[in-house]
Amino acid sequence: MVLLNERQRLLAILSLEKVDRAPCVCPMQTATISLMKASGSFWPDAHHDPEKMAILALAANRYAGLESVRVPFETSVDASAFGVPTKDRRLLRQPQVLERRLLGREGFEEVDVPDPRKDGMVPVVLDAIHRIKIGAPHLPIICGIAAPHTLAFELLGQQEADRLIDLDPVLMKATLHKARKWAIDYATAAVEAGADVITLIDPYASGDFLTTEQYREFALPFHRRTCQELERLGIPVILHICGNATSNLALMAETGACGISIDHEVDVRQAKKLLAGKSAVIGNLNPAGAMLRGAPFEVESETRACLEAGVDATSPGCGLALETPLENLRSFVESTRRFGAKVPEG
After folding, report:
1. What is the pTM of this model?
2. CATH code where residue 117 lies
3. Burial level of 119, CB count in 10 A (0-12/13-18/19+)?
4. What confidence tens digit (pLDDT) does each residue in 114-129 have?
């Protein structure tokens, strides 16, 4: 079998093609304190300086060996484009939404879909992607974008979003359509800047927030439409839903996402069965378990278990914890390379 570089391998996996071995990637945030120290690029500067963002994003590959580069390091970027203020940026804390932009029908109608090339913190991300592409064209660049449901929750607040789902589903769906339009525009700009893959991040669509019927009505149509539109543009999508998404896995199989990134609470074998022939399964080491608190041999054991269960690409089940030891990241990568060729087919 022909040996592939990192970019080719991940893109082949997302096309459901056979590869020489499973890649070791992270569709979610990759910054850690050890990588900040190694690269000399620290939060909060790496959130708003494109050169420092690129340096820290590349550090996951240069110092740990991860076979992808992922920007940004936080989830408030999308909301910032809508004029939402965020909390102070600090070394040990990601930026978070401080105030909600929308409130009811009047607030919704006042807000236009922003321009990703001009508004909020997105131009910083696009600049960082361009820098990464120039410096490391062999690595797949993954841009994380808030999925429509999560962006709606960020703009409305959970209480208001829950209220609209129950009492004004028409307005909630109108908000979701606006958020979907944003995701398409942002993804298009990211790919023009050099991104290879989009991760749609939707923690608010997990079984912890939505019942199966609510997922079917308020998340699935917008996941599917977003994936379809990006597919027409030739943009592969990884869908990530944090937490235990088991109850909605069958519906997630209908989204058309090229890859499904699963958290550690989801059974890999069940995911493989439901997603066979539809999406690559990416996951699903516990980022707060052995990866954070264990020894390298424990990370090796968990990585091997994921591969034996059938993941198409190994990855943490969510974003890396800041305190994740560098030696554990290296063990994760080395274990994938050692055992990844033995991934069961199907």
Report:
1. 0.94
2. 3.20.20.210
3. middle
4. 999 999 999 999 999 9
